[in-house]
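Final report, closing paragraph on structural work. Over the funding period we assembled a curated collection of sequence-structure pairs, and we close with a single example.
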Amino acid sequence: MAGTLNKVMLIGNLGKDPEIMHFDNGGSLVKFPLATSETYTNREGQRVTNTEWHNVVINAKGLVDIAHKYLKRGHKVYLEGRIKTRKWQDQTGADRYTTEIQANQMTMLTSRAESDGMTSDSGTAYSNQNYGNNAQASAPAPNPAPAQSMASQDEDDLPF
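Its predicted structure, as stored:
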């Protein structure tokens, strides 16, 4: 193979609410930590969980606003992007390095019911939409009109 590839695919949970940063040139980005976990049973029969933390940065135009508006701590998300290591200097002038995941595609995996703290099996309330740079995002579906009566609401919930 003549070329190289820098591609990351992650499914994990947000460690905290996304932080948005706006720049003078009109650009913006959103940052948040993402946890991915691996669980296995060791030789003694005990379940062991290893959690890896990833620093995620999104600067794709349409994804920044969606990530900031809809993602919250604990939400599950699927991300695609690339690994980027940045070099910077701390207050003492020492060189420091930061490795980040620069995401350019995102699919939200937490349903609206789950994000509101409800335990409903209504399925996902998000739909995929494309935003520039081949970036995918999921946005909440519009709320349906309120039902006229409880009887008509119950009829709509029938599985057939």
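The CA atoms of residues 10 and 39 lie 16 Å apart. The two ends are 52 Å apart (CA to CA). We thank the funder for supporting this effort.
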